[in-house]
Design goal:
This protein is of the alpha/beta class. It folds into two domains: 95 residues, Nucleotidyltransferase, domain 5; 189 residues, Hexokinase, domain 1. It is 35% helix and 23% strand. The protein is built from eleven helices and 13 strands. It has a six-stranded mixed beta sheet, sandwiched between helices. Helix 6 packs across helix 7. The two termini are 14 Å apart.
Length: 316
Amino acid sequence: MTALRVIGDIGGTYARFAVAERGKYSELQHLSVSKYAALKDALGEYLAALPRDLRPTRGALAVAGPVSGDEVKLTNLNWSFSITALKADLGMSSLVVVNDFAATAMSVPYLPEADCYPIGPPQSKTSGPVGVIGPGTGLGVSALVPDAGRWILLPGEGGHSTLPPATQAESLIVEVLRTHWPHVSAERALSGAGLVNLYQALCSIEGKRPDPLSPADVTDRAMRGSDPTCVKAFEVFCSMLGTVAGDLALTIGATGGIYIAGGILLRFKEAFASSPFRDRFEDKGRFQDYLRRIPTLLILEESPALLGLANLPLEP
């Protein structure tokens, strides 16, 4: 962790670059990905602008998409690249690329307590596997498993698992969404675009014409209480997120907690804490008591993936 490294969190909307050393990062910049044709252009511009003594030759990047070989393609952005070619083009001695929510999961052991906002009753600090889930441009899901004093990352694409309706009303919403996509993944509802999808589906069920709203419009109307359909969309969003988070907790045995990341909920932490999320998280029949003991926490760190990359081992 002592050597300088460039780190980058590349999502569907922004790329965040920084320089890290000893587990901390600085020189943070946010770049709009729409301004660049390829990742090497954005990262190359960032590196070229750094003072010479801060230009690393090692790097760690997190991308919003699966990483299973040398060729990487982002899910919600028309960027693809070869890790080997990118490393050569930028003159780097080493370059590690991981899924963005694997990097977010890696941040959990290094998060200050002040950056963990409890959702539901405060729980005692626990040990065991940790689950991370986060609605943003897409829906990220990952896990972290302790093993003999180290952490093992379990990257995945859980955001594309099938969206599970837990009530009759949610079944109606999924039926509407199914008219647009034959497979309704969790991401179709639990993301920025998903929040708009929920609003439009509810308008269809209510027999009214939806307004052309952005995700920010839906949350703004919901927080002000000025549009009952937006209020309902946010409530459904939190409920469904609770169901999916509870499924994740049961699947990996997340006794170390479920951490919620992503950009949507940071501005509404009080509203999220008072939403149906926690009740739905625990609503698993015979395993309600099991889930009641698992803490759920909202990550307040703006760029947890960068913190994770700053502490990610660069060698196997």
